Each structure stands twice: as C-alpha cells, then as structure tokens.
Amino acid sequence: MTKQVKQIDRVVIRFAGDSGDGMQLTGDRFTSETATFGNDLSTLPNFPAEIRAPAGTLPGVSSFQLHFADHDILTPGDAPTVLVAMNPAALKANIRDLPRGAEIIVNTDEFSKRAMAKVGYATNPLEDGSLDAYNIHAVPLTTLTVDSLAEFDISKKDAERAKNMFALGLLSWLYHRPTESTIAFLKKKFAKLPVIAEANVAAFKAGWNFGETTEGFAVSYEIAPAKLPSGTYRNITGNLALSYGLVAAGQRAQLPVYLGSYPITPASDILHELSKHKNFDVRTFQAEDEIAGIGAALGASFGGALGVTTTSGPGVALKSEAIGLAVSLELPLLIVDVQRGGPSTGLPTKTEQSDLLQAMFGRNGEAPVPIVAPRTAGDCFDAAIEAARIALKYRTPVFLLSDGYLANGSEPWRIPAVDDLPDLRVEFATEPNHELEDGSKVFWPYKRDEETLARPWAVPGTAGLEHRIGGIEKADGTGAINYEPANHDFMVRIRQAKVDGIAKDIEPLEVDDPTGDAKVLVVGWGSTYGPIAAGVRRVRGQGGKVAQAHFRHLNPFPANTAEVLKKYDKVIVPEMNLGQLALLLRGKYLVDAIAYNQVRGLPFKAEELAGVIQEVIESV
Amino acid sequence: MSEATASANGAAGPGAGFPSLTLVPKTDAKQSMKDFKSDQEVRWCPGCGDYAILAAVQGFLPELGLRKENIVFISGIGCSSRFPYYMNTFGMHSIHGRAPAIATGLASSRQDLSVWVVTGDGDALSIGGNHLIHALRRNVNLKILLFNNRIYGLTKGQYSPTSETGKVTKSTPLGSLDHPFNPVSLAIGAEATFVARTIDSDRKHLTSVLREAAAHPGTALVEIYQNCNIFNDGAFDQLKDPDTRDDVTIRLEHGQPIKFGKDLQFGVVRGAAGSLDVAEVAQVGEDALVVHDAHAENPELAFALSRLGDLTSNYHTPIGVFRNVERPVYDTLMADQLAADTTARGTGDLASLIAGNDTWTIA
C-alpha cells in the first residue's frame, strides 16, 4: 500500500498522559529528532508540581507541546493541531485547547468505564459523538505495545511502560522524523538493563511500522527543514543555556565559578548541570538553605571567585538581606531567579514574570541592583554572560531573571564561537591606591574608579591590602565605619549613581518598526519576546503597523528609553504579571503605558496579543 | 603540593604543629600582637569581656606564623561581631547569623586562607542556628569563636537562647519561658569534630584552647564564656571568683583523670544510665575516676561531660577541649573532587561543552 505524503509548513503536537507515562521524555525525544532534522522548533513542557499525582486524574496530567516548522517560529504554538492522549484524563484536560479539525490519537486501552468515570465522562467520548469535530485515531496503544514485546522476557508491567515509545514511533513515522538518535538514546539510557533497552527500541520500531501498515493513518506529513541563518546548531533548554553561560563567564573571566544554591523548582537543573563541570574550575555547594546558598557565594566572591546563586521567587525573598549586604560590600555576585507563579509557594512548575519588582526593590534601604533578562531559551546563554560582565566590571550583585517557560522550553541554538564571546577578565587590586598627606601610601577599599565608580577588588592573600568591609555604612574612600549624615547621603547616592551609570555601557533599546511610521509600540521583557513578536507578525501580516521593542536590561534601562517611548502615540506593555514593567515605565518616563496582563502560568498566545495590538491600533 | 605545605611540614618554629594550616603561606617576619591591631578605635563598653578575648587573639596569632594577609575574620551581627574591625587582617562584618555560611564559601574556595568566625550566642544559636550546625557537620576548615554572654547586648538586654529559664529581662518582665541551649551539647550533637569551652578572663586557658582549635583540621567550635557587664553582669562569677572557681570549674585535660577542687578533692565518675557524677576522690578512690579522652570517636563521654555543668549556678562547669577527632575536611574534599575530575577528564574545553553531542549545520 502506497500512502499519501503531504507537504506542510508547520505542526503543533501535544503529548499528554499521566505524570508516570513518560510524556516529558517522549516530548524530549521527538524534539531531539526534530532538531536533528533541521526544523525550527519551540517547546512547552507543562507538568504538575506533584511527582506522581494520583493516576488517571486531571491534576495528574503531564503534557509536552512542540511547535515545529519549515520557517523561523517564535512560540510553542497557540493551539495544538495534534493531540496524543494516553488516557481519558489527558483527553479531558486538553480537549478545550484544540481547534476543530485537529487530529487526536488516543490510547483506547485506557478508556475503561472506571477510568472515564474518574474524570467525569458519563459516556465514552470516543463513541458518543462529542468529538465529531475532530479527526480521531483510536489506537489500542497498550495492547499493541504488549503484543509487540511478546518475545521479550520482561514483565507485563515493563512491557506496558514502553507504550510511550510505541506512540513516539508512530508519531515519528507520521512526520518522517529520523530515528537513529532515539535508538541510540534508549540503548544508552538503559545500558544497565539491556533487555529493557531492546524492548523499548522494539516498541519504538513497532509504533513506526504500525503507522506504515495500518489503515487508520492514510497520510503522513513532511515538513522541510527551516532556512535558519548559517551555522552549527543544537537544541537547548533555557536552564542548560544559562548553565553554559555561567561556565563560559568563568572561563572568559579566568575566574573560578562558585555556585551556592538550595534546590528549588524550576531552578534546580542549573545546580545539577554545574555540578557536572568541576573540570572547568566550577565549585557547586548545595547549601542548608537559600540564605546559606547566597552567603557562600558571596564569601567566595570576597575570595576572588565569580559567586553565583540560583533560585526562584521564594528563594529570592529569603536571600534579600544578603543581596543588600552584597550591595553594601560592592562585590560581584550573580543572583539567578528562574521565576515561577507566586505569591508564596504559588505555582512551582508554571511560569510567570512577577518578580521584577522584587528584584528591583525587594530590599531594605536604597539598594539598587542591575537586572538582566533573557528573551529566549538560547538567549539565556548570552544573558548570563552579560549579567556576569556587569557584576565583575561594576563590583555589584546582578539579577538574572529567567522564568519557568524559558527554563524548560527549548529551541534550536546557533552555537557561538568561544573566541567571539566577550572578554571578562578583571584586575584584582595589588597595590595601595591612595596617598595620605604625609606621603605614605595606603589602601582604601572604597576609593572608586572614576569612570565606572566601581571599587577595587582586593582579595585576601594580597599583602598590604588588609581591610575590613561590612554592612554598616562606610566612610567614602577609607571604608571605615561612619555614621555621619553627609557621608551616608553621599554613599547612598554614589551606589545609585554607579548602577545608573551602567546605562552608558549597555546596548540601546532597539526598535523593530519596518515601515517607520507605526503609531503603536509594544514593549516587553523576558520570555514574552516570542509571543509578542509572533503577535506583531500577525498584525503586520494583516496590514497593521506596529513597532516592537524588548528590554534586556531592566535596571538601569537603556539610555535611549525615554526617546523611544516618546515617539509613539500608544505604548502597550504585555506581561505575565499585573503590570510591573508598566509601573516602572509610568513612574520613570511618565508614559501612559497600556498594561495587558495575564497570570495563568502559561505563556501568552500570539493570537491573543495580535488582538490586543489590533484593538489599540484601531483606537489611535 | 605547594611550597607552603612543604615548609610548614618541615620547619619547626612559628606555624609548626598546626596541621589545619599547611596550605596557608607562612611569614619569616617576626610578628607581635601590635601587628594584628587595626587603626580602628575599639568601641565596646568599658569593662566588656570582649576586650580580653580580642587581646588574647591578637596575642596568640603571632604563634601561627602566618602571613597576616592570609587570615580572615568573618562575623555576623551583635557586640562580638564588631571584632573583625579591630583586627589588622582581612575581615567581613556580615549579617545576622550568616557568618558560618559566608565563611564556608570563602574557606571552601580558598584553602590558602586561615578563616575565623566570630559570633555570639544570639548570632550563632538563634538567628544563625541552622548555619552553625551545618558548618559543624560538614567540617569546613573554620575556627568559630562563640562569645556566650547569655544575653542580647546590642539590642539592649533581651534574653538569649543561652539565658537561664525564668530570666527577667526587658522582653520577659515575668521571666523567660525558654529552656536554654547548651552550646557544647548542641555542637557535639551536630557532629562537630572539635568542641571546647573557655573563659574570657582566663587568658592562659583561652590561649591554650585557641592553640588547639587553630591546629585542628576542620571546624573548631570554641565557646567562650564572656561577661556582659551592662546587661548580664556576673553571669560567670562563680567560675572567676577566687573563692569558688576551683570548686566549680572542671579543667579537662586529655588523657588525665578528671579531678578538680582547691585540693583536687573532687572527681568525675560514671553514674547511672550513662551520665557522669561528681564524687569526692577520698570516697571513690582514684581508680574510679573517669579519664578524659577528647580523641574518642564515640562522642558519648564528651556529651556526658557537656551535661555535667549546671547552666544556672555554673557549678561543675567543664572547660577545655571536650572533643577533638579527625574527619575529612570539607574544603579538602571539594578541592580533591575538582582535581580528580580534572585529572580524569582533562581541563574542560568550553567549545566542546556547549556544542554537546547532537548538532546540525546549516550552510
């Protein structure tokens, strides 16, 4: 039987099942095959905070969405055009996101009366006509998997567990994915259990063959590789890119990296990753709590390392006092906040960008801290290096604000040449830097560089530069304890001036305004870049005129910010919070920014933003 | 091995006999107490026990023979935590309770430093209790000097976690309800490898304890009974008054039968259910006395000794080194892991790390 092959330009697939069904792994593998094939892609894993929520329930559903295309894409897709549902709960939890006509591949083996009743299906949705608007492929995935593994000497349970690989094989056939990498992956993953490895490979191949032979799938699809800029690519998640950025920063600064961290979702993977790279002079310290994590990092910075602490919002709250100390000590320190839904414990596994004001103001006293935010998963690499550059050059703690969407989502990343990365080398102080009236030379720990206003970094072990620093207000220059009113006023202002002065040393805010006469500007920061850019594309595709700008530096803002904002009649600020950047822009630039906000734990949809932009354009 | 290691292990003289400091560079210059005094005016209340401790530390450090730029004092918040400002070494006056965490980061990334933590009973045992116990169990190469005056001084006189139950203070006008910590018991329970107690006013004893602590590879906790003459004056008078001190203080010496009293008429013997009791030597005989063994792997004796003193009356307070055992040092383990990984895999290559194993090229 020769099957029809259709050429299409893009697909959005969502794999959904129980948290124990291996959906994240299945999604990862499909992503890897797709990356190797050369499509552009973007992913959105979405899973519960519980490790294994009760089986078959709605809260236990874990999903992985993947958007891939033959052209450059910006988001994981608004709505899946294909849903793989491993059980009734996965179907029920995801069906409302599907447009009419979407393909649904369901594992019919799991549609028992009891399983359906558990999620509130009184009748079988596969038979009662409620899914008539969709293209249903009813496949007994579990039975087919178990049957295909009859020859293997493994338990029925182990055979059943390979059903995700059967599904992966089927989807790989359906979209003409290369299979070599998945087979190699399975052999490596189960190297210690060769029978399980072989069984999973067999299930994967059986899924592929099933697609090829069954009449249930008449058509398969080809999506040509995307024409991305030339270079060598890999697929990368935000947390991995950020980890590599930290390693690269240490290498380019020729400094040891010291990570003090306490495990917290969704930041823990950075700790896991850095702990693998000891041969890059990277020390990782899993501390007793968040405060000890930053404390140890700051202690290491005092000793001349690039101190880093990684956390999420609740951890930042605990670290606040130590961040204030770092502001006062004026030592380099990176605070990586992989933001998640808040307040309090909030939504540990879901994304949000609601820590901007915490990063900006969440300390006692006037304690300015520079803020850098990556815009895509791959950009986490460059943003980490940029944050380190500022920290090292200006001797200051710096916030790096990633989020759950960037952390776990992935995209193709053009691998940079190491020699093109910025040179971050610093000079430690080695000599006295001040001459007293009597002509004697002394070391003043708070005598600043005239250009950067940074103070010297004099590390223990440097003869003649012994000095004491601390959180009590210090005298300008000498750094001795000082409570004088004028001195405190001066020190507060000079610390602020140092951070403000960084504006001269960062790239200006770039505006994308192809026609040059748009009246509406959309401004964002962080991970909303993709959805905003996709929304802007849609509007332009329909003839609308709109400009886009995206902040990488949020403190200080780029020097041309006021000029940019003033040029437009309307400024829209979409954020996954209740208007934090909008508040800052209104306060600092007196711009009547239109805040558009949602805090659903998921990224914006391009269509939704396109609608918002269009509405504002029409109102001008 | 660095040169510092070789010279420290070889030569006698200053610095010899301090196995914890083999990687810290030594000086040939003759040092005196004066070299360790900073130019800052000391601002503790007149009569504060902290002065005596500062003098003892400044007087002792020349013995180590270290280059003073390789010595770092890190403190938290409280009266005692002003200590680093008065030392002409590197120093950091940090935030409340966090000094052990900050010092852990420094010590575990710089084995060439001698790192000291100065803290108080509130700083170490209340707000910073978590960091203290974890530093102790990890056995980071830190020397922690815990100034215990059983009161909050800098906030003007509230009870502390070592204050006796029922203490009347500004925040407890009807008496405190809290049961106090015994810092030595706590440290032993937290897997500390070195635990000692001494007294601010006994310069000789204090110095001898500092000497043993400095030599210990790993975390050394030294509890120093310190008089706050403003808010808790006389808290340790029984241990200082010439009329009572010999009969209430038990001076521990490793390998010696535990005897005390003006005429060494008292001794420590095994009691019921694993506890220790005080008895008259004449009644129980010399052979019944417990011989102190600070090096015992099993912390049972050290712990039982820590329970002997009455924290309210100060009667039968052991001072000296309770426990001094060897266990791998955290900083060394961390450095060894880095070195072993680098030996096994070679120095990391950034280009190949970021490329990974799964790439594709677009022309």
From TrEMBL, chain A:
Cited Pfam families: PFOR_II (PF17147), POR (PF01558), POR_N (PF01855)
Annotated keywords: Oxidoreductase
InterPro entries given in the database record: 2-oxoacid/accept_OxRdtase_asu, PFOR_II, Pyruvate:ferred/Flavod_OxRd, Pyrv/ketoisovalerate_OxRed_cat, Pyrv_Fd/Flavodoxin_OxRdtase_N, Pyrv_flavodox_OxRed_cen, THDP-binding, Transketo_C/PFOR_II
GO MF entries: magnesium ion binding; oxidoreductase activity, acting on the aldehyde or oxo group of donors
The Pyruvate:ferredoxin oxidoreductase core domain, residue ranges: 518-581
Domain Pyruvate flavodoxin/ferredoxin oxidoreductase pyrimidine binding: 259-476
Residue span, Pyruvate/ketoisovalerate oxidoreductase catalytic domain: 20-207
Tree of life domain: Bacteria
Keyword Oxidoreductase belongs to the record: yes
GO biological process, one term: response to oxidative stress
NCBIfam families reported in the protein's UniProt record: OAFO_sf (TIGR03710)
Protein known as: 2-oxoacid:acceptor oxidoreductase subunit alpha
